[in-house]
Specification:
The structure holds two protein chains of two kinds.
Chain A lengths: L2 E12 L2 E12 L3 E5 L6 H8 L7 E6 L12 E4 L11 H11 L4 H14 L15 H13 L5 E5 L7 H16 L3 E6 L2 H7 L2 E6 L2 E7 H9 L2 E8 L10 E7 L2 E6 L5 H9 L2 E8 L4 H9 L13
Parallel strand pairs in A: 3-7, 3-8, 5-6, 6-7
Antiparallel strand pairs in A: 1-2, 1-4, 8-9, 10-12, 10-13, 11-12
Helix pairs in contact in A: 2-3, 2-4
Chain B lengths: L1 H15 L2 H30 L5 E7 L5 H14 L5 E5 L7 H10 L4 E5 L10 E5 L4 H22 L4 H7 L20 H35 L2 H8 L2 H33 L8 H28 L3 H27 L4 H6 L6 H11 L5 H29 L9 H10 L1
Parallel strand pairs in B: 1-2, 1-3
Antiparallel strand pairs in B: 3-4
Helix pairs in contact in B: 1-9, 2-7, 3-5, 7-9, 7-10, 7-11, 7-13, 9-10, 10-11, 10-13, 10-14, 11-13, 14-15
Classes of the chains: A alpha/beta, B mainly alpha.
Chain lengths: 309, 414
């Protein structure tokens, strides 16, 4: 198995509204995928289709080499966006119940529940009812419920939303453990900084369509060439006239040039050398936040050259 | 299957541990016994209640009856010293009916009665006017007036009333069971109420418990546990597990009630009322009855997000299930009538109708028992099938609950 998850041309409509539109994705096993997009982009709908909770109107999904996630439910862990636990059950009962639903049994299950409770610092709470837990605690509990059976593929829908920095940190550590163990992780978020820290690959979705996909470096590289910065002396104004420069902001001794698509920064550097004495040259590496804002603002159309498999 | 059992187990434990369940185990039979014994007690209490003296004006146009009427009411007053009647003779030419009515309105009189001139010899009869319309008092007065007139007539024919009473004394009848020849030890009232008690307990076991399915589903939906569950099990497994779990709760309840009923029937020598046969029949009808209802409720619960919405969708179903409650007396008195037989084939209420009929008539034909059970089981399968389809779509639907027409569409197109 090389791909843990393959989506081919997935489309889902609710009435007249197309929530997911011809969406394709390949997800190599053992990596962490950030599933990015603004609110309402179709992330949750896509993840629910991956889980076979709802079914696509068109397209094909392959999960862990099976056409239907229902057949491999015990090998997948899922944390839905809307959190929910039985309020009247105790912490321990909750984990044992969900463990049993995932096919775990007997003493092994009990031992593993205790182990995990110890790790997330809820061991003292195991006989307390879920309704007495704080929000952060119950979120941790639910996360553990999703990964208790040590699944090969973990799908987390907005796992960080509503957590304070301490709990974010602890969740990131748990995710790190999963990744080291070789678990494939897909998590959706609209916080770019998180995705930058955690992900091997990202896919950006907007209005149901894929906007961009690739490893973090690939995505950055594709946008990195768009800006170059120059510091130095000479005829800076002349830089405006260089071939391939679409836009320029020039102050004394400093220029920020926006390059047209497909222009090699090296060529621009060479041309600039003839006009000025260069003290500093930098190809700007935009952070994900900028890429996200740039791609999503406007009408959400896929930018030229960004859509490739 | 393991997962279905895991879900059923949770559902069972979650319900059985609630206070509501523990209360219903104890309270419901208590209510029934209370209702049976209570009517007797309340009646006795009513007879002893202290009432102001009720004064009657009597116009005796026949001129013969007043003395006997006085004697009759004196006997009544002796029986019920707290609820006395008093008579006031009014000469026929002295007072008009209008004047008497005025006095009743003023509160001086409880009522008046006018005996016709030929009340004794002919059929002239008597006019009775009184302030209230209480049944028992009316019956009592009519009885006393008749006794008084009869006493006059007997005297006129020179017959001794004591001799008449001796000749008309009741024949003691001891009842035995036709099948076994054993003496029937229970009283008539208890016998008449038994079919109702069986039906009522089955009704509560079915309705009271399967309602829990509705609330637990809506709770799962509104707390969004449902999505976690569906990531581990299929909607059909979830539905099956929940129905199984709730059905076990219902069965536990009926078992407790049944064995307590059986035990105490032996204890109090009314063993002919709670028999093994009747309990077996109750169990046979309870299972499909419960499954049918819970399939319908599962479908409704899955489609709704608020208890309010669910209850309004359950309403037509509830209307139907009132039928055995309304007709129980008719059915238990006429277990083999066409209406009773026809109602036995209406799926959701068939178990209740049949338990009424079988408890009232041990000769209910076997073919009817088998065919009604068959109809029930066929509708269970059909309801499960349709509910499964609604359930799969419903559990993930949020927002406005679907109309019945939409529900029908879900069934057809999935």
């Amino acid at each position: 198995m090389t791909d843990a998850l393959v989506l081919e041309g997935i489309t889902k409509r609710f009435g007249n509204f197309t929530a997911v539109d011809d969406f394709s994705l390949r997800m190599p096993a053992g990596q962490v995928l950030g599933f990015l997009g603004p609110n309402g982009a179709g992330k949750t709908t896509t993840l629910r289709m991956v889980m076979s909770i709802i079914y696509p109107d068109a397209g094909r999904i392959t999960v862990l080499d099976h056409p239907n996630a229902a057949e491999v439910k015990d090998r997948i862990g899922y944390l839905p966006e809307e959190r929910g636990l039985y309020r009247k059950m105790t912490v321990q009962e909750t984990l044992r119940y969900f463990g049993r639903l995932k096919g775990l049994r007997g003493p092994g299950l009990r031992q593993r529940v205790d182990e995990y409770l110890e790790r997330i610092g809820l061991a003292d709470w195991k006989r307390k009812r879920v309704e007495t837990l704080s929000k952060g605690m119950s979120q941790k509990l639910q996360f553990i419920a999703a990964i208790l059976h040590q699944p090969e593929l973990v799908i987390l829908d907005e796992p960080f939303s509503g957590l304070d920095p301490l709990n974010v940190d602890m969740l990131e550590r748990l995710l790190g453990d999963l990744r080291r163990r070789g678990t494939t992780v897909v998590f959706s978020t609209h916080q770019m900084s998180q995705a930058e820290r955690m992900c091997d690959r990202i896919v950006l979705i907007n209005r149901g369509r894929k906007v961009i996909e690739g490893t973090l470096n690939e995505v950055r590289a594709r946008f990195a060439t768009h800006f170059v910065m120059l510091d130095g002396e000479g005829d800076l104004e002349a830089l405006r006239q260089l071939g391939g420069v679409a836009n320029a902001q020039i102050t004394s001794g400093h220029a920020r040039l926006e390059l047209a698509d497909g222009i090699d920064p090296n060529v621009v550097l060479q041309a600039a050398l003839e006009k000025m004495r260069i003290a500093r040259f930098e190809v700007q590496r935009p952070d994900l936040q900028e890429i996200f804002v740039k791609l999503v603002s406007g009408d959400g159309k896929t930018p030229h050259g960004a859509d490739q498999e | 299957m393991d997962k279905i059992l895991a879900i059923a187990r949770r559902e069972f434990l979650a319900t059985v541990r609630t206070k509501a369940f523990i209360l219903s185990v104890v309270l419901m039979p208590a209510v029934i016994v209370g209702a049976l014994l209570g009517t007797h007690w309340v009646q006795k209490l009513a007879e002893e209640e202290k009432m102001p003296v009720r004064r009657f004006a009597v116009i005796d146009r026949s001129g013969q009856v007043y003395a006997d009427l006085l004697a009759q009411l004196a006997a009544f007053n002796a029986q019920r010293p707290n609820q006395r009647f008093e008579l006031e003779p009014v000469a026929p030419d002295e007072a008009s009916e209008d004047a008497l009515r005025a006095r009743v309105n003023k509160g001086e009189l409880y009522g008046y009665l006018i005996l016709a001139a030929d009340a004794v010899a002919g059929d002239g009869g008597c006019v009775l006017a009184r302030k209230d319309k209480q049944l028992e008092v009316g019956r009592e007065l009519e009885e006393r007036i008749n006794n008084a007139v009869a006493a006059v007539r007997l005297r006129e024919s020179s017959i001794d009333p004591a001799e008449i009473a001796r000749l008309r004394r009741r024949v003691p009848i001891s009842e035995v069971e036709a099948q076994t020849g054993k003496a029937v030890t229970s009283n008539v009232m208890a016998q008449a109420m038994t079919p109702f008690a069986f039906m009522f307990l089955m009704f509560m076991g079915t309705f009271g418990i399967s309602q829990g399915l509705l609330t637990s589903l809506i709770e799962e939906k509104s707390s969004r546990v449902i999505e976690v569950l569906l990531s581990a099990v299929s909607p059909l497994q979830l539905m099956a597990g929940k129905i199984l779990g709730t059905a076990l709760v219902g069965f536990l309840l009926l078992t407790v009630w049944g064995s307590v009923g059986f035990g105490s029937a032996q204890q109090y020598r009314v063993a002919d009322l709670v028999t093994g046969y009747r309990l077996t029949i109750a169990a046979l009808y309870f299972v499909p009855g419960f499954l049918l209802l819970s399939a319908l409720l599962a479908a409704i619960g899955s489609a709704c997000n608020e208890l309010k919405d669910a209850q309004s969708m359950v309403f037509p179903l509830s209307l139907l299930t009132i039928i055995p409650m309304i007709f129980w007396f008719y059915i238990s008195q006429n277990p083999a009538s066409t209406v009773s037989i026809a109602l036995s084939y209406v799926p959701p209420i068939a178990p209740f109708i049949m338990i009424l009929r079988i408890c009232s008539d041990p000769d209910t034909p076997l073919w009817q028992i088998i065919s009604t059970l068959a109809v029930l089981w066929v509708s269970v399968v059909a309801a499960m099938w349709a509910a499964g389809k609604v359930f799969r779509i419903g559990v993930l639907m949020y927002g406005k609950p679907p109309s019945l027409r939409e529900l029908a569409r879900w069934v057809r197109y999935t």
